[in-house]
## 1
Amino acid sequence: MRHGHREEHGTGWADSSELAGAVRGWFTGRLPQDWFTGPVEVEVDREEITVVGTLADPEVAADASEAERAAAAEGRARQFRESTREDRISVAREAEHRFDRKVAWGVRVGGERVLFTHLAVPVMTRLRQPERMVLDTLVGAGVARSRSEALAWSVRLVGRHADEWLRELRAAMEEVERVRAQGPDSDPAGPEGQE
């Protein structure tokens, strides 16, 4: 056991859905109730936890333009970011110690999702010429400034258009992890080696 965590598969959690549930539950209990209008969205990967809460929309005049509404929402997001900075840093430190991942914050307000600072993790990959040509086309067309930015753009595009398929894939992976966790004990000594 480490800091009250369960040690399984060297990660402390039986599978990613258990970890995501534990993280979501911890933030739900730990965050001040007056910060957000409902439950927080929590996304967890190997490096980072992203916590996004919904803020109350700012009150604007009924005849306010879209630009005015957008500016009011941006102002509300900035006000929340600045007024909660010290408390969010304190909560993030606790979470980083507990879950061994960095914490990023964001809000939903006025129909927009605004992320504050979050990790940009380098990913090593080997691409063949046809894949490099796709990235170079995006750079040449001005869609991206570099191959790495073009790759990130491509990943976001696939994520947007393949949400349902990716959800099914993640669910299948979680099921495999759950079944694997129910398998026999992986102790190489076997029952004879136990006292």
## 2
Amino acid sequence: MSEESVPLGGRYVRRLGFGAMQLPGPGVFGPPRDRSVALSVVRRAIDAGVNHIDTAQFYGPDVANELLREALSPYPDDLVIVSKVGAARDDRGQWHGAQHPDQLRTGVEANLASLDLEQIPVVNLRRHPESDVLFTEQLEAMESMRQEGLIGAIGLSNVDLDQYRTAQSLIDIACVQNSYNLADTSGQSIFDACRADGVPFVPFFPLGSAFNPENPVLSAASVKATADRLGATPAQVALAWLLDQAPTVLLIPGTSSLAHLEENLAAADLVLDQEAREALP
């Protein structure tokens, strides 16, 4: 892997990390299809130099965090675990908002318990677009937990440019995690703001949504043609394109497959030439 690194939550992380969302069962719910393989994927990521893992207590729920704990605890000193709050799951696996300050605290406490940590290095406040809770109240709750030592740093997720600027005026922002990939650049304005400010930007669904079987990222003709010409895979081209957009982009592609993990990790060393840059959106 490339030695390039970016500061995140007070520590430096390599630009290609790992997302734990696909470790649980189908629909990010329940146990993994093969627990031993899931544990092997996590351990292999760390052995390959990954030191940034993205997770959430509501992945499973608890499943992703418990797999991380079993695979890695005691955690490596340089590992930055990033979790998130603002959502919850019911016993049928349905997703619900958990936006009120007390729910944010409950979410942080649940993450601490399932990861077996005294402090989570970074916690992203995931804003629900239809939340009826004042954004500033949420930020105050997160900052309070940071001052208490429950979390090391605060990130934002699913926010717009105005919310990003509001947060900037009130707290230190560790990172922003929004949707952004070759097929979805609707969040270009906040991407550009983070790039200008030097704030790490972490695209979720960097290879397109795992819930969309058509996957417009990997099926795009320009992506396939570029992959063929460079002797790479479409996934590697899509990840390399994101890394090429700004030096502070951090990637967290997720998988429950060792083969896909190796494919994703190799994208850190794929260099796009000018022809690729012109061919891709």
## 3
Amino acid sequence: MSDDKAAREDVVAEYLRTHPDFLTRHPDLLEQLELRHGSGTAVSLIERQVEQLRTANDELRDRLNRLVSVAAENEQLMSRLHRLTLELMPIEAPGAFFDHLGTSLNEDFGIDVLSLCLFDPAAAADAGDDVFAAAREDAALDPFRSLLDGGQALCGRLSESKLGFLFGARAGQVRSTALVPLGEQGRDGLMALGSADPDRFFPGMGTLFLGLLADVITARLALSRPTEQRRSA
């Protein structure tokens, strides 16, 4: 198609867009217009419009069904998180608290591996196998520095070195990860949720649940601090 012909077609197309009643005022043109269906057979303009509306309607219905499905999943997720929070509240021993957290995340939320890096050695000392301590200035945390400072969850696939730091001997089980700072600007540490499914956690996914879960853990860590530290925090 020549540039001149293409330019003329653009002018005609723009005119019809701005004058949608043109064919109503010139009904004789409807008899001369020729539209080809995908199968090669000719169809009327009205038939083509009906087909396009039906296709658009189907797309809207699919989108609505997906939104309804996501809403139902989110409601179930929030309900399970609420139940987990109620179960964790009366547990005083740090080890029992984090053991129950890890078990529930595995059985009720499909999380294969939980790992928490805490910056308070005393808090991590009795917290169980899923928890380890590291100094915030530790060079091993440099790859996570922007995440901690930003205070926002991050989901996706990590390098072997990052997986090794976060999950240790269990790193081989993890194909995708959700990282969540604990406390304001990662003041208390970092939570890592690992999945054997490479598509379980992905960039751009919703992180409301992760943030709420981090709030539960942060609140529990605050209760474990001496009274003087809680007042100064």
## 4
Amino acid sequence: MSVVELSPRRTASARFLRSELWLIFGRRRNQAGLLVLMAVPILVAVAVRLTGGGHGDGPDFFSSITDNGLFVALAALTLELPLFLPLAVAAISGDAIAGEANLGTLRYLLAVPVQRTRLLAVKYLAIVVFSFAATLLVTLTGIVMGLALFGGGSMTLFSGTEIGFGEAVGRVLMATAYLSVGFASLGAVGIFVSTLTEQPIGATIAVVIYCVANFIIDTIPQLGWLHPYLITHYWTSFGDLLRSPIAWDGVGSGLFLAAVYILVFWCASWARFAGKDVTS
């Protein structure tokens, strides 16, 4: 009997998640945002190709682009790390609950009925999927453009060790997955803010300001004691995955901090939303 009762719920949850993902990836504004994310690695690859070199004042990845096209993806991730990717995640997470309330559909959605905990869980799972998809899109675009314009082959890591092309692709994908977890933690902050308001634009702006403030605080030496607790502090540790052996200290700390943020802010979202009086 329990199996019969659980099957419809699982089907409904899967259908709800598919519907939420379709809503996110089917909107024109989100599609336009993804195109902007794709434009950065294209611009990087074309600019380096036209100038004939990657040396300059940019991140270390730029100086290696002409040696291996895979570095286009890493350079693009570095450029999008402070604003573009966080902005994309902030827009999706800020709209998660506030968008439904703003359109007047949240009350009807809960009247289906959909349990509030399951609604919040599905909404956040969709944010996680978007975080991974958006970051992977930047990486894949960079890989395709980089290989097309500069070729592949072996990769020389920051530590001077040379690895084969297959392992190099694996390292790039590991860096992508690591950053995706960091953006997913920002999505947890976003869905919490989304439960506090009925204005999705306001929620998005608040999350972006929070993210930028973290980056700013991280550059102030006098606040060094606070740096390890900032949500963005370990994001740049993805470069440690391009060393041999991999420097796991920063990566491990980043994954742990992201997990703490996800747990704390999702629980805060549940505490806020579970007892919230929904009128719209």
